[in-house]
Design brief:
The complex is a heterodimer of chains A (about 190) and B (about 180). In chain A, about 70% of the residues lie in helices and about 0% in strands. In chain A, helix 3 packs antiparallel against helix 6. Chain A starts with a helix and ends with a helix. Chain B is an all-alpha fold and about 180 residues long. In chain B, about 70% of the residues lie in helices and about 0% in strands. Chain B is elongated and about 50 Å long. Classes of the chains: A mainly alpha (about 190), B mainly alpha (about 180).
Chain lengths: ~190, ~180
């Protein structure tokens, strides 16, 4: 019961995130630099924190409450997502907006999104039980999705959306904010 | 192949022991010699580079255990990896481009605290569960037992203890850097 509710809730959040992300990206490509986009850029650390917190809570919900065992690729995506949460969390607590956030978040989220893309392709294109090395023991097969919501959302699709949102937010921040804004910790 | 794997794990264990001796000397030195000195300033100046080396060795070591020696990581092992792997990339960036970063000091301490607590817990349950029972008590997820150890060197070094040593070393490096801020870098 709670599993079904959780899946619908997180899938809806992912859908919402995807819509917001696409609208923001198109708006940015159309207008380039507006007060609204600057507002997003200034608050990108907080917004990224919210995105990664949702993602991490989602992974913990699926593994600890819904008891979906994570496969090896899932764990590599977690390895990319969790540190981002701690990075943005630490930056928020310190009220710091240092420039090191940009390359670290971009590289980590890119690596994570490659893993998610590969995983999603395995699930959707390759037949279930396809060529994925399970972690051994009772680890889940990577190519078998636990659920399919709205016809396309699976767990790696959720992770991919999170990573791309982080890339979008970090990208906006480094493109729109001048160095002084960033160094002065104007979150 | 078995022989090479054994040799490499022994080398990693020796490196762990060296790391533990360095950590202990550092803590004792920190308690008795609190003034800024040439020694502390040197460590502080190269803290990000040294942290990168520790994190990179830990990352490569853990990948060696899972991908070459083919020991399947348990759930607790994975959580320790989550806190160790990103530090290699993070300190590589900090050491190459962002030597003045305050965030890097705090981030390392936060990540190492979480990772260190998990590693301590993991080592504790490994050492307190008898090994004949350990094989029968799997972790809740994954089916790989967290309480069983694949390697045991010098009578006390197992994989989570290696991780713990890495976390403690990076934590100490960041403490030294905060206590003795390097002026020139």
């Amino acid at each position: 019961m709670i599993t079904t509710i959780g899946i619908s809730a997180y899938a809806s959040l992912v859908l919402l995130g995807q819509v917001i992300g696409v609208v923001t990206l198109l708006y940015f490509l159309w207008k380039r630099d507006t007060p609204e986009l600057r507002w997003i850029a200034r608050h990108s650390v907080l917004l990224s924190f919210i995105v990664t917190l949702t993602a991490v809570s989602g992974t913990l919900f699926f593994s600890e409450i819904a008891h979906f065992g994570p496969c090896k690729i899932c764990w590599f995506q977690r390895t990319a997502m969790y540190p981002l949460l701690f990075l943005f969390g630490t930056a928020l607590v310190l009220r710091s907006s240092e420039k090191i956030i940009t390359p670290f978040a971009l590289i980590t989220a890119s690596l994570g999104s490659f893993a998610s893309l590969y995983h999603y392709a395995l699930e959707r294109v390759v037949l279930p039980g396809g060529p994925c090395t399970p972690g051994g023991g009772d680890f889940a097969f990577c190519a078998t999705p636990y659920f399919l919501q709205f016809g396309y959302i699976t767990i790696p699709m959720m992770a991919l959306s999170g990573f791309l949102l982080v890339i979008l937010l970090t990208g906006l921040r480094s493109l729109l904010l001048k160095d002084e804004d960033v160094i002065n910790g104007n979150l | 192949m078995m022989y090479q794997i054994y040799e490499i794990t022994r080398v990693l264990s020796i490196m762990t022991m060296i790391g533990q001796v360095i950590a202990m000397v550092t803590v004792i030195g920190f308690l008795f010699f609190r003034r800024s000195s040439f020694f502390w300033d040197r460590i502080s100046k190269h803290a990000f580079f040294l942290a990168f080396v520790v994190a990179a060795v830990s990352t490569l070591g853990s990948l060696f255990f899972s991908e070459i020696a083919e020991y399947t990581p348990c759930k607790l092992c994975w959580f320790q990896r989550v806190f160790m792997y990103p530090l290699s990339l993070f300190y590589l960036l900090a050491f190459l481009r962002y030597k003045q970063s305050k965030l890097a000091e705090w981030y390392g301490m936060v990540m190492c605290s979480f990772g260190g607590v998990i590693a301590t817990y993991h080592y504790f349950i490994q050492m307190t569960t008898p090994q004949d029972i350990a094989a029968l008590t799997p972790c809740t997820v994954g089916g790989v037992s967290c309480t069983q150890y694949e390697i045991l060197h010098f009578g006390y070094i197992t994989i989570p203890l290696m991780a713990l040593t890495g976390f403690v070393l990076i934590f100490l490096l960041m403490v030294i850097r905060k206590r003795f801020p390097s002026s020139a870098s």
